[in-house]
Design goal:
The chain is α/β, with parallel strands linked by helices. The protein has 16 helices and 13 strands.
Length: 474
């Protein structure tokens, strides 16, 4: 037993830190040890319970209804509103697509209208559920173009999606105009607030300007928001809220046409641990409304100070003034974003590189947490040093031969030999017996990927993941 736990701790030593406010992607840190303790203990207490049958584990049903109620009150939802706890933002988004499709069985070859900044989870939903995604380019402010989205709605449209905020740039789409256009055509309008849903309501209460996006906007039929982001709960929970029970009903699945128990599911999962739900409920109950208001004040102060500090770093600029806690930084060309990300990692900070897209440059993405506030000065100092190092070394140059090799590849016919050649070129192949060797510095690899088209990039990363996920056998 202890040997397994010792090995677990040994393995975990190579992971990114989840506390301390220095990991500005993937994790969201309140900075409150007591909150983390409560969440962990609640997860452990309910790890073996099964959310498949709420009558067998009524505690889970009580916690789910209370958690949904807190969120609905936070968003000023009508009394008719309902909600469901899911396993994360992606499942919430998938269910929004599935529910919209199944609510319109009369529509052959259904479509949904999204901006090009919509989270990829909706494109995953389109792929899984056979819904055509009609993607509309955003404007120069990186917000959805409401007029173009309205024009894209037709008789086959079953869903329109807006973001609050969009992940890549941290800005809120013009939800009132988008929702009005959807309502005029009798189409559902979903607001993806997975990352902003638990912090933007408090931003408004703090007097910050936030474009309208909640159920207070006529025409908004559903909203997704994650508790494992700015509710600072343990990983594995999100909420999908609907304005009425009738809008949620197509999300349910039941099957009695077999000799076993009648299957009844509110989400994509059947069996699911009650641990994540209990952890989210316990954290929300511990922090409460005033606790979240305080944490929102701290995370926005950290965000504002970072944005102000970037203004003094000439090679960098904030791509779009953030409406929430997400910041995208671009360079002036004297250095590249990928090298800055590597340099920040060397200084003990993890920031996320984003590839170029449709003429937009690569960016450095920051998901700021409340715990980052105490370390903003350290962050800006590290960022300044990282920018200086990146300027000194200059932008990453990809060998002309490698560039030509990538440009000649067909993503639909990527062979093992093609991929092996790229692994060698990118320095990702170590000793033959060890297989892939991910380098400590990723700038050259990211620069190589940045050359590829989105389709080619997808093919390369799928091949890479396939190589990583190979069994370890005795």
């Amino acid at each position: 037993m202890s040997e397994a736990l010792d090995r677990l701790r040994e393995l975990q030593a190579g992971d990114l830190p989840v506390h301390g406010g220095r990991t500005l992607a993937y994790v969201y840190d309140s900075g409150l040890a007591e909150v983390d303790r409560v969440g962990r203990e609640a997860v452990a207490a309910h790890a073996a319970s099964n959310g498949l049958d709420p009558t067998a584990f009524p505690s889970l049903l009580t916690m789910e209804n209370e958690l949904v109620g807190f969120a609905l009150d936070m968003l000023g939802a009508p009394e008719s509103a309902v909600g469901t706890v899911t396993s994360g933002g992606t499942e919430s988004c998938l269910l929004a697509v599935q529910g919209a499709r199944d609510a319109r069985p009369d529509v052959d070859r259904p479509r949904m209208v999204v901006a090009d900044t919509v989270h990829a989870a909706f494109l995953k939903g389109a792929h899984y559920f056979g819904v055509e995604a009609v993607t509309v380019p955003t404007g120069p402010d990186f917000r959805a173009d409401a007029e173009s989205m309205a024009a894209a709605i037709d008789d086959r449209t079953v869903l329109v999606v807006a973001s609050a905020p969009s992940y890549a740039h941290g800005v809120v789409d013009p939800v009132p105009a988008i929702a009005a256009a959807a309502a005029a055509r009798g189409v559902r309008c979903h607001v993806d607030a997975c990352i902003g849903g638990w912090v933007l309501p408090y931003a408004s209460r703090l007097g910050r300007p936030v474009p309208p996006w909640t159920f207070a906007v006529d025409g908004v039929t559903s909203i997704s928001l994650d508790t494992h982001k700015y509710a600072y709960a343990p990983k594995g929970t999100s909420l999908l809220l609907h304005r009425t029970p009738e809008l949620r009903r197509p999300q349910y699945f039941a099957s009695a046409d077999w000799p076993g128990y009648t299957m009844l599911n509110s989400t994509l999962q059947s069996t699911k641990s009650g641990g994540p739900l209990a952890g989210a409920w316990a954290v929300v109950r511990t922090l409460g409304d005033e606790g979240y208001l305080r944490l929102a004040r701290e995370v926005f102060e950290a965000t504002d100070r970072i944005v102000a500090g970037v203004a003094d770093l000439a090679p960098l600029r904030v791509l779009a003034a953030p409406d929430s806690t997400l910041v995208a930084l671009a360079t002036d060309g004297s250095c590249d974003a990928f090298t800055i990300c590597d340099e920040m990692a060397a200084h003990g900070w993890y920031v996320q590189p984003q590839m170029s897209y449709a003429g937009q440059p690569p960016t450095i993405h920051l998901s700021v947490s409340a715990a980052t506030l105490a370390h903003v000065d350290e962050f800006l100092e590290a960022l300044g040093k990282s920018v200086m190092s990146a300027v000194e070394s200059g932008p990453v140059a990809v060998d002309d031969g490698v560039r030509a090799f990538i440009e000649a590849l067909d993503p639909t016919a990527l062979s093992d030999a093609d991929f092996d050649g790229l692994l060698v070129a990118a320095g990702l192949v170590g000793d033959a017996a060890e297989g892939l060797a991910v380098p400590e510095r990723m700038a050259e690899v990211n620069a190589l990927l940045d050359l590829a088209s989105p389709t080619m990039r997808e093919a390369l990363l799928i091949a890479f993941l396939d190589r990583l996920q190979r069994p370890t056998r005795a």
